[in-house]
Design goal:
The structure is a single chain. With about 350 residues, the chain is α+β, with helices and mostly antiparallel strands. The protein is built from 10 helices and 12 strands. The protein has a 5-stranded mixed sheet. A 4-stranded antiparallel sheet has the order 6-7-12-11. Helix 1 packs across helix 6 and helix 5 crosses helix 6. The longest helix is centred in the middle third of the chain and has 22 residues.
Length: about 350
């Protein structure tokens, strides 16, 4: 615990030095509190719409334990189904497939369905690997939101689309000063991620109307721009995920909770600046990292090459929304990964 407390004090002290030449225009804490108040209000409103308990028929498909269950409509989730089947399903099922659609484990079931689980050691783990990578970026954003001193306004920007071949995940942020973190500071950020992982916090999912999303992100120009772009594509629902008090936009699905991360195999590997697509004279910071699911362990001789590859700066996806001439397929893929 001494190292953890030291890590918090060191990074806050370091950031204080770097920010001495510029006073932050606001603070992250009241903005975060307001976002969570709106999130909680909307979550309670949606729960209040369930006036009576209705049942849905759920058929579990799989190589083992095929069965049928009666679950509560709009309340029961794939995780509740996993609880009926046994602890291994809860511990190792990263995401679910419901009537052929990818499904977050904590997302309520809405109708009679066929359900199966996707695990990391399945023959075709591609989708659960994507969900894990997406969850890693979200966790990275959660670390960055709370790592700096209270007076520093940290603007979460987005999870960039990065090809799997790059061997890393990333998160872009805007902070009001130039910062080139040292190796020690990257280690400190990794330790902050460790603290969150040990809390076994859930990745909460909530679908909201665009006006609710705009209220949550009214202090973040990047998120408002993203919501407007989603609306321009005809989408009338915005999917949010919350980890701790960090809220972001993502189609998902994500992991059930932070217990799916290997605690000592989540590493901030590098930081570099990229062009700001909304403020031409500004630069964003892109943080990169690499991680392993808790289902896997690796010797340091295998882990080191993975780590070294993730240290190479990736400059893909500098403009998150392409024009039609640049290719709708690219735009759709970027929206999916945001």
């Amino acid at each position: 615990m001494r190292l953890i407390r030291l890590s918090e004090s060191v990074i806050r002290r370091t950031c204080r030095c770097f920010s001495s030449d510029q006073t932050a225009v606001s603070s992250t804490i009241p903005i975060t509190q307001k976002q969570n108040a709106v999130f909680d209000r909307e979550k309670e409103r949606q729960l209040s719409l369930v006036k009576a308990i209705e049942k849905v028929h759920v058929k579990h498909l799989g190589p083992e334990d095929e069965c049928s269950l009666m679950m509560n409509k709009y309340l029961s989730t794939p995780y509740h189904v996993a609880m009926h089947l046994g602890e291994p399903y809860c511990k190792h099922s990263g995401i679910a497939v419901v009537n052929g659609s990818l499904w977050h484990m904590l997302q309520p079931l809405q109708e009679d369905c066929e359900l199966s689980f996707v695990r990391f050691k399945d023959d075709k783990p591609f989708e659960v690997n994507k969900a894990f990578w997406r969850s890693c970026s979200h966790l990275m954003g959660a670390v960055l939101q709370k790592a700096f001193k209270e007076e520093v306004l940290v603007e979460p920007v987005r999870t960039p689309f990065i090809p799997l071949s790059a061997g890393c995940f990333a998160y872009d942020v805007n902070i009001p000063f130039k910062w080139e973190p040292t190796r020690e500071e990257l280690v400190i950020l990794s330790r902050e991620a460790y603290v969150i992982m040990k809390s076994k916090s859930n990745f909460e999912r909530l679908e909201v109307r665009p006006d609710v999303a705009m209220e949550i992100f009214e202090d973040n120009v990047y998120k408002k721009h993203f919501v407007e772009q989603l609306q321009s594509k005809g989408l009338n629902r915005v999917t949010l995920f919350r980890l701790g008090d960090f809220i972001d936009i993502s189609r998902g699905p994500m992991m059930t909770n932070t217990d799916f991360f290997s605690p000592h195999r989540f590493v901030f590997t590098c930081v570099h600046s990229i062009d700001d697509y909304l403020r031409p004279k500004n630069k964003l910071l892109r943080f990169q990292g690499v991680a392993l699911p808790s289902d896997f362990d690796t010797h340091h001789t295998t882990w080191d090459p993975i780590l070294q590859r993730a240290k190479k700066p990736v400059h893909h996806d500098l403009v998150p929304f392409q024009t039609k001439d640049d290719g709708d397929a690219q735009t759709d893929r970027q929206i999916e990964e945001s």
